[in-house]
Amino acid sequence: MADELFDKAFLKKLEYLDLVARRLVFGRQQALRPSVKKGASIEFKDYREYSPGDDPRTVDWAVYARLGDLFIKLFRDEQELDLWVLLDASGSMDFGEPNKFDHARRIAAALAYIGLSNMDSASILPFTAGLTRGRSKLRGRGQIFGLLDFLTAFRADGRTDLRAAMRNYVSRVRRPGLIVLISDFYGLGQAQAAIDQLRFFKHQIYVIQIAAPWELDPPIRGDLRLVDTESSEHDDLTITDSMLRRYRQSFDRFSSDLRRYSMRHSIGYSLARTDKAFDDFVLNVLQRGGLVA
Amino acid sequence: MTLLAPWALWLSAVGGVVVALYLLKIKRRRQTVPALDFWRELAGTAPVRSLFQRLKR
Prior knowledge:
The structure holds two protein chains of two kinds.
Chain A: H1 2-5, H2 8-26, E1 33-49, H3 61-67, E2 71-79, E3 82-88, H4 100-118, E4 121-127, E5 135-138, H5 144-153, H6 162-172, E6 178-183, H7 188-200, E7 204-211, H8 213-216, E8 222-228, E9 234-239, H9 241-264, E10 268-273, H10 278-287
Parallel strand pairs in A: 3-4, 3-6, 6-7, 7-10
Antiparallel strand pairs in A: 1-2, 4-5, 8-9
Chain B: H1 7-24, E1 29-33, H2 36-45, H3 51-56
């Protein structure tokens, strides 16, 4: 499994993606992202009148010599950027050929690797009905192998409760960071409410909808017993051509609703088809921007 | 077969019931789906076209 999921070719692609990411996205910034907040760095931001309690070391004595008033220098804060990859590991992700969860794990690993190289920390937190411990606040590229082992051992199973999982997340992580949410987003109403919780805490969000070719155009017809991968509930249905047509329309509407919701709230959105190469997808996401402000 | 000896009539009626039961008890292939609710919504809006389909449901 480990060899199949994250083989040598995968690691080579990671190296390539990392190089491209440095050139395309991070460039000169290299993990130091200017913040609107004032703080302590060497980059000057503004002056402010001295008030009791200010650090006297920040007083600009040259200005005092010219104007006779005390002013202190304010510097731009260098804020850390944490990458949080929230990975749906529910039963519905263990579906399709190529498998949705495998595809999602590859994308998550690639983003984490880029994050480990270029950002202050990277984390991967799988979730089902709640958030798992996952691997948090990893730093440095050397952590990637432990992360790949962790992802390889993880199994997609159980029901999703995106709202509960996001509630867990916002109670655990207070500092705004870059969140990449990877899921199939079934139960869109619940998904939007879940993402709203993240928006409230000022996180920068990017959603990746995973879809297998089967879901986009199911090759089924006739009398079938449809069994839900998460709940094992079943329904007997006769699938006709008109039903398939309505299914495709319904799935398109479902994806467009998620895309529209994301655009409305300045959230990045991408649909990742499992029959497309994960590295092409990641490249495309990086090139189009949006993943990193 | 006459109305004085209706056993053949009964037999054919039983045969008809067996055939109807066979048709109603269709062997369905199992197909796992990632979200059954999606299909249930579609089935809920699907027009039921014939008495036979209604019976099957």
